[in-house]
Amino acid sequence: MSTPESGLKTLAIRLDPGIHAQLSFIAQLRGQTINDEGIAAIVDHVQRAKSDPELRAKADTVQKEIERDAAVKNAAIASIFTDGPTGKTTPPRPRRTGEATKDS
């Protein structure tokens, strides 16, 4: 959830009581809050992820898929709103206005 004043997101996590106690003590020793320690850990995690070659390869694959999908959608939009040729289509058959008679 974001707070409108600051644009920050709230992240709630559940910690094992032992880990919480350790984190609380580390924060106390450093003169920080548990929140500060959590942010530092998350920032470090994100920085390490950015240099992970396997993760980067997955991100590149996803980005290429997004670009292909966008190109298809852009072409579809362009074909709707331009006067250029749109490919061959079969004209619709005329509708019958009356029922066929047995004599015809």
TrEMBL record:
Residues 80-104 are annotated as: Disordered. This is Uncharacterized protein.
